[in-house]
Description:
InterPro entries: Cro/C1-type_HTH (IPR001387). Pfam families: HTH_3. This is Helix-turn-helix domain-containing protein. By secondary structure, the chain is of the alpha+beta class. It is built from six helices and 13 strands. It has helices at about 1-25, 30-35, 40-50, 85-100, 135-140, 200-220, and strands at about 65-70, 70, 80, 105-110, 125, 145-150, 155, 165, 175-185, 190-195, 225-235, 240-245, 250-255. Helix 2 crosses helix 3 (about 40-50). The two termini are about 35 Å apart. The mean pLDDT is about 90.
Amino acid sequence: MIDEHQAAIAELSRVRRGALEELLAGNMTQSQLADMLDMSRSRVSQLLSAGTRPERAFLGTGKVTLAIGGKFEIGRSDPGAVLSAEAFGAYEILAELARTVGLDAAYEVVPPPGHVHLNRPNLIVLTNPRLLPFLSQVMEADPHLRYVEDDRGWFIREPDTGKEYRSPRDEGERADYGYLGRLPRPDGKGSFLYIAGTHAQGTLGTARYVAENLPELYRELKSRRFSTVILCRFDAKDHRKITSTERVTPLFKHEG
């Protein structure tokens, strides 16, 4: 019960700090906030530096679970599900990000055929529908972007415009596309964050994009549903080294 109360206090302090920062962003001064709230300016300053960072809500409000699609080991009579180095690298980036904003994180491997349990809070799912086929159906709730497959493989498409984002890696370039979005849970009781590269480099690069842009993403989106495409470039010799990330579509908002 103490742990639950401490978690509630941390979440309430995050909401309070976020509200104060929004008011300041709306051109109020700390002195005006103090007058409005009937407290001293030093107390306002204290509240702005206390508590957890508001942007942590982009990841979750409690311990974060990262569900990662795995594939069977090759050449073994009793193969177990394993993760690619890039997928595990994406987990490490996001777990460290969670820790910096006061959240714990753990991962679980989703073995083939990829039956991932989506109806739970504080969930981030990694890897594309090639490993997690059910996600291609869940993505149909996204009116702007989704992964589809044809005889040339998987790619991201805008359903309304027909615009396609086919991985440059398939043409020999050192780049891949990643999907970043918040999708509805099947039970209708919340949402989860989904990060999926067409190839492993896209997953790793998109995780890095989130880590490098968390405050901006939270400021623009809060915890609302959205989606976007990230172009991830990687090193010629070390394909697990991401050299740059760039958002190539708007932040498509799914609600209001």
